[in-house]
Design brief:
The chain is mostly helical. Helix content is 45%, strand content 7%.
Length: 55
């Protein structure tokens, strides 16, 4: 499902966002503000995205 307004488009995460998700999920400083530890690899981020996609 997508939510679109005049200034915003929200869409589900997916594997197409692997690189951009890893860019923030793998950053130790950013991870201090999240509920998970920083991701160590693209594979870990891929598994995270796949798990979210199943929900």
């Amino acid at each position: 499902m997508q939510i679109k307004t005049e200034r915003l488009l929200l869409c589900p995460l997916g594997e197409r966002y692997l690189d951009s998700t890893f860019a923030y999920a793998g950053d130790p400083q950013t991870a201090t503000m999240m509920v998970h530890q920083p991701h160590d690899s693209l594979d870990e981020t891929l598994k995270f995205l796949q798990a979210i996609d199943r929900e």
